[in-house]
Each structure stands twice: as C-alpha cells, then as structure tokens.
Amino acid sequence: MTSTAETPLLEEYVTDAVDHGELPAGRSSTGRWSAAWFIIGVEVAERFAYYGIASNLINYLTGPLGLSTAVAASNVNAWSGISCLLPVLGAFVADAFLGRYRTIIIASLVYVLGLALLTLSTCLVPISTPSEHIASVASSSPSSLLNLLFFFSLYLVAIGQSGHKPCVQAFGADQFDEKDPKERLERSSFFNWWYLSMCAGVSLAILVVVYIQEAVSWALGFGIPCVFMVVSLVLFVLGRRKYRYVRRRHEDETNPFTRIGRALLAPSACRASDVEDATALVRLIPVWLTTLTYAIPYAQYMTFFTKQGVTMERTIVPGVKIPPASLQVLMGFLIVICVPIYDRVLVPVSRYITKDPCGITMLKRIGTGMVLSSLTMVVAAMVESKRLETAKAYGLIDQPETTVPMSICWLLPQYLMLALAEVFTIVGMQEFFYSQVPTELRSIGLALYLSTLGVGSLLSSLLISVIGLATGGDGGNSWFNSNLNRAHLDYFYWLLVAISALGFFAFLIISRSYIYRRVDGV
Predict the structure, then answer these.
(1) Parallel, antiparallel, or unpaired for β 315-317 and 24-26?
(2) Which of 326, 294, 322, 303 is nearest to 489 (CA)?
(3) pTM
(4) Would 260 be classed as within a structural domain?
(5) Is the pLDDT assigned to residue 253 strictly greater than 80?
(6) Helix (H) or strand (E) holding 53
C-alpha cells in the first residue's frame, strides 16, 4: 500500500526542482515548453538589443566618432570579445551564490542602465546621420569626455550581458527534467529552437535598427534597443510562476567549485563521482582551445564584411540603398530556415541511420561547422580580390569615397555560408558545453561556449593590431588601410583560412579520442 501511494507523487513532482514558492515543482504545472517560450521570448528581446548596437557599431566608430578602420575593427572585436568572456564571471556568481533567476534580474538592470547611457552619449554627439558626417570627421570629432561616456556605456552593456547571457539559456534548459526520457529529448530540441528564435530577434534588429541608424539618427537607433531590453525584463518577471528553479543547496552541502577543486588537487581523498566530474572538465580544455580557430573568422562579419559593403554598389531601386550592415540579416533568415529542417528532417533521418539519440554526435556537428567556416574565408578572400581588381580597373584606387562598380550581392555567399556554419557549430557548442559539465555548473558550461567566441574576437583584434603595425599602420601598404581600395583584406582572409584549417585538423584528432561524460543516465 505504501509503494502504491507514493508512486503518483514521484510522477507528479520533478526531482531537485522547486516552483516560485520554493515548493516541489509540479510536472504538469511548471516547466517544459510553456515556461521555455517565456524564456526564449526574453532572449529574442535581449538579442535584439545587443545586435541593435553591435551589428552597425563599426560604422558608428568610423563615422561620428571618427576612428580609422583598423582601430574601429580592433575596438569592435575587443568589446565583442570581452562581452563573451565576462559571462564566465556571471555564470560563476550564479552557480556559486545567487542562482540563475536572481542573477538574470540584476544583470538585466545593469544592461538597461548601460543602454540608456549609450543612448544619452549618442544624443550629445552633434551629428545625426552618417551621411552628414563624411565631410567633417577631422573637424568635428566628439570630445574625449563624450568618447569616455560612450565606451563606459558600451562596457556597462558587456557587464550586463555577463550575467544575462549564460544564465538565461541555462535557465531555459533547466525547464526540462533530465531524468525523464521525453523531456530529455525535448531539451535537445530546445537548443535548436532557442537558436532559431534568437536569430529571429537578431534579424529584426538588423532590419529595423540598422536602417534607423543609417537613415534617421544614431540616437534613436540606440534608444530602441534600450526599450526592448526593458520589455525583456518585464517579460521574464511575468513568467516567474511557470518556471522550475533548481533546488538550493543546503548549508551543509559543499559548493560545487570547492568540490571540483578538491577532486583536481587531491583525487584520492574524494568520491569517485567528484573525480569523474573534475576529469570531465579537464577533457573539455583541448576541445575549447581548438574551437578558437572557428571563432576568429566568425568575428569578421560585423567588421570587415560590413566595411567591404560600404565601398560597393548598394542601390536596389533608384533612390534606395541597402545599409551595408543589413546583409547580416540574411544570416538570421537562413538560420531560421535551416534549424527546423535540421531538427525535423536531418536529425530523425540521421538518428535512424546512426542510432544516436541526437542524430549526429555533438562533436561531429561542431566539426562540420568548422569546415564550412574555413570555406567561407576562401570565398571572402576571392570576392575581396575581385573587388580590388575592379577598383583598379576603374581607376578608383585613390578615390575611397567613390562607389566601386560591383554589386554588394557579391558578398551574399560569404554571409550565407557563415550562417550555415553557425547552425552546426554554435548550436553544437551550446549543447556540448551544457551537457558535458556537472549539473550544478551548467551556467559555466554555456559561459565556456561564449568564452570561445570572446577569446576568438580578442585574438582577431590582436591579429589586426599586429598585422597593421607590421604592414605600415593606417597608410602605405597596410592590409588594413582606411582606404580599403589600397588595403589587402584578401591577404588577411587567406591567413584566416590557414588558421582555421589547422585548427580543424587539431579538433579532428582530439574529437576522435574524446570520451563523452555520462549524462542523465545515458
């Protein structure tokens, strides 16, 4: 009788999860897709805000702020890199102290403050559109105080993202019970739909915000993302009664970081499960290092890809020009198309063939994207060589303000190929790093994937600075001459081809010997 009476309770409540009132989380009343869609909506709004700033940032730096192309690209890569590295700190705070929900709330408030100050700084710059700025960069550069306010605000956004980005996605994945076979499969699907929805927000930002920045004003273009971030925070709080929260540790339980640290330093004195968790973390290091060679080429689409487009013919109909940063929206559109195909067609077919629950292994998925990324740089180098030849043929080498008679559509293949690489590598990295770390450290797991992109951006910034100095600074034969008709971005792209190819072969060797951590009893 006792066994029969207890069985419904085991089926009704989720182990190790509580609801908003810190009572056991009911399986039917909390979590799963009804909660996950709230959290996905929050991510869409946050990505709209972030990319509303990031996607056209290089044109603001070279326009109203008057920086050279190389310095602006280095600044964008540095900010992007730090934005992706700081989530490691945010994830640590969440996993060790505050919990994911509280960390997201605090980080969102910092995020909103940063965006508000960023909008204020652009309002104070005495220029409203990039076209009005072309003739007056040298004579009307903003004051040092305004520049300081702008960059302070920009890095405040990075600090806000540090708590928001890893915790929101981990919190979303927490809504699926890893011990339930059906919910475990739903969680794998969650990562695909998460990325699809996120890209929808990115695409909307690029379509709407970039156009407003180029055609109306930078202040309004930076203000709209601030409004969306406020909406993100409100939406997140509204869904609080639907969420499942990871049960808090009791005071007598060991901090997971302490537990893992002890297992690394004195494995003989620790439990076998603790040693296994510590070993799993160590095995991630070689994989993390090799994926950096994917992240360096990935960093180029918001900098040099955009600057290439500025020099090319962008008229689609008489009187209407495409903002060069708007081509990034094609990446989002392709991802929105490809993710459902991957999730609903490719995964079931490959699952039938390989007998793997995920269709193809996570490392194979990541490796496929790395190959596509390397091929993207090959195409980008060839297109840039063609652009330089066209500029030379028409005598435009020393006329950087004159449009090169070559359609911006030539850039479409490199954008679309990079998007296809994202579908494989980025989503694969999210699921891989989330599932291969101990359960208590899953915010850290997602922060590790973000830190790959962050370090890749910083390495890209370092490469640009070193190569720029070695090849003549901002003039002469520099690869990054502000006059792109005298620059050699094609050489830089070929260098990235070599780096990414070497990285892939190292990844191939490491992945063949990688032993997956036993997750969820599988």
Answers:
(1) unpaired
(2) 303
(3) 0.73
(4) no
(5) no
(6) helix 32-54
